[in-house]
Amino acid sequence: MTVLSEQEVGRSSELNELLRQARSSEVPPAAISLELARKHYEEGNCEQALEWCLRVTDGGDSYPSWYGAAQLLPMILEKVQPNVSRTVRLAVLGSYTTSQLTDLLRLMALRRGLYLEIYEAGYNQYQQEILDESSSLYASDPEVVLVAVDQHEIGLPTYSDDPEKAIANELQHWTALWDHLGERSNATVVQTDFVIPHEDPFGNLSRRLRGSRSSMLEELNQRLGNAAGERVVIVSAERLASHFGKSRWHDPRYWMLAKQAVSLDALPLFARQLIAVIAASLGLTRKCLVLDLDGTLWGGVIGEDGLGGIKLGAGAEGKAFVAFQDYLLSLKDRGVILAVCSKNDEATAREPFEQHPDMRLKLDDIAAFVANWEPKPKNLTRIANSLDLSTDALTFVDDQPAERAAVRAALPEVDVIQLPADPAYFVSTLSSYPFFETMGFTNDDRNRASQYRARALLKEAEAEASSLDDFLQGLEMEAIVADFDELHLNRIVQLIGKTNQFNLTSRRHNRATVKQMMADPAFVCFYLKLSDRLADHGLVGVVIAKLTGDAFVIDTMLMSCRVIGRTAETTMLDHIFLRGAELGAATVRGIYVPSAKNGQVADLYARHGFDLLSEGAEMTTWEFPLTERPAPNPMIEVLSA
Questions:
Q1: 300 φψ region: left (φ > 0), alpha (ψ -120 to 50), beta (else)
Q2: Contacts for 461 with CB less than 8 Å, ≥ 6 apart
């Protein structure tokens, strides 16, 4: 059930009636949330108005409600300051009318903790803006450029005798625009692909004709994805339209009247997906899916029904739970961390994982396993701590409304997914959740579950060790330090984009910028890989430094949260000192820029003997004379690359 603040008690009778209606639903419908936002605003309760305005996006995809909330939002923001994790400069370029979409993007972004400063180009001005280096697009200095285009912009005929040439020409057109953007801006480019219209003069024959427009559009979409690589993020409007329904995605009436390529009814879904991808491009994605057991991974209650009594494998319901576990495994294989949070005796909770023949998930697939009788919000915090994650990296799945409500009330930063009553729909419900989006897929993603599971085991070993030094020595850690290269570039850019906690400056360099730094002799760019006796953690550290005068200045120094506390930062600094000395620098200069999440590294330079050079609210600068280089870190053996 929805948890209401004390300030919402004792209001006007009209407001109280709206609150009563909201209490009757676990997630209030969008229309109720909008009315509550309006009523709170009218009564001067702007903080509550903002909360309910943003809750509209949780209550379904009703365009009238989203539109109403988007119109109310600017008035609320004139009176109250939102709590956001990041401000982002976004440029929206469209081949069609984007004003309604832009309003919804601003609303959905704020719901995800992002404040958007938006530059919106005029209707169908995307090519002019990209090609003109003095355009308002580049003057706005965007961090993200959204190129929202649709199939009306494609010059493919109804049928071509030379489909290869036609597709190649179209591909060259779009990649050339990407090249222009890359040359003139360091922004991340997000582009939609092309929805293949369901109206086709060839009907079913189209699938057999490579030269039909539908077949060429399908191939063009595939080639655009291949050509995008890591420099452009493709959002599949074609996939979204197929899910939503092609006949409803594009409304010819809106197109004729206002050149609106995406129907109004589809805009909330579209905005949610776009913001998920934009957030992921900024490193703001959910990392861990926390699962209940009884009623979620199997039917029944293991503590009461026993191993043979739970529903798993046999019958329609049992098969549905197996299908759900198969989907969870696919998420794990692409890098989502899985954890368990169950009210159960631990030994009993583990039995299906260890003994049930139809159990797809095994204990090795679970990074953190917590089964006890304590409140689930407390256990979610415990899971986050054991994995060195913040609670806003968690998404929680539980079949019980009371448990979901408890988590929403105690940990509002945790995403909570409401499962349907029928387990046959668990997979479609979870697959519709967009906030596990990621910008790449590397070997580190494949190995993430085992790496985080090892991290939790290390926490236990640390607690049992007689001293920290004994614990670290017992890990038998080995590191490889090497310069950036093409083989590891995807992982490097991924870490730069998403690392928040151990990040001294929180600077976000995209792929193009990193490649420029790699080619510039003034820069030194290296990574660190770490392994120990329990796991190979892969590439976990990144350093970018530049020789400026006689100072070797650290532009970027960051490390994955899964190896925090293992002294890898000391090894990185050892290598910084070494490279700075090789370049003839007199000092190493470190910069710390505080953020909402990197407080744990505020004293890193002080702990390593740096002298404070300057101090301010927005930045502190530290310096270390290279004549006083310390001995190398004794806890980690550095191997040859």
A1: left
A2: 471, 474
Residue 80 to residue 45: CA distance in whole angstroms: 10
pLDDT at 359 over 80: yes
Residue type, 563: V
Three-state SS string over 420-488 comes to: CCCHHHHHHHHHCCCCCCCCCCCHHHHCHHHHHHHHHHHHHHHHHCCCHHHHHHHCCEEEEEEECCHHH
| pLDDT at residue 6 tops 60 | no
Closest CA to 220 of 9, 382, 203, 228: 228
CA dist 267 and 195 (Å) reads 14
Structure tokens at 200: 């086709």
Neighbours of 71 (CB within 10 A): 12
513: which 2 tokens? 């910028």
Dihedral sign, CA of 205, 211, 216, 218?
positive
CA distances from 151 to 215, 217, 220, 247, 251 (A): 13, 8, 11, 15, 14
Q: What is the structure's pLDDT at 15? A: 80
Q: How many CA atoms are closer than 13 Å to the CA of 236, on its beta-carbon side?
A: 16
Residue 546, beta-bridge partner list: 523, 553
Residues near 292 by beta carbon (within 8 Å), at least 6 away in sequence: 340, 341, 342, 397, 398, 399, 400, 403
- What is the b/e burial string over 547-570, where b = at least 16 CB atoms within 10 angstroms of the residue's CB? beeebbbbbbbbbbbbbbbbbbbb
Rounded to two decimals, what is the model's pTM? 0.78
Angle, CA of 54, 60 and 61, to the nearest 5°: 95
Q: Within the chain, what is the greatest distance between any pair of CA atoms?
A: 77
Task: Check residue 634 and report its DSSP letter.
Answer: T
Q: Six-digit token pair at 339?
A: 């954890």
Tell me the pLDDT tens digit for each residue of 436-464. Answer: 888 766 666 666 666 776 666 666 666 66
Bridge-based pairing of strands 368-372 and 477-483 is: unpaired
Angle between helix 63-77 and 267-281 (nearest 10): 50
Task: Report the half-sphere exposure of 402 (CA within 13 A, side-chain side).
Answer: 2
Q: Among candidates 556, 566, 434, which has minimal Cα distance to 495?
A: 556
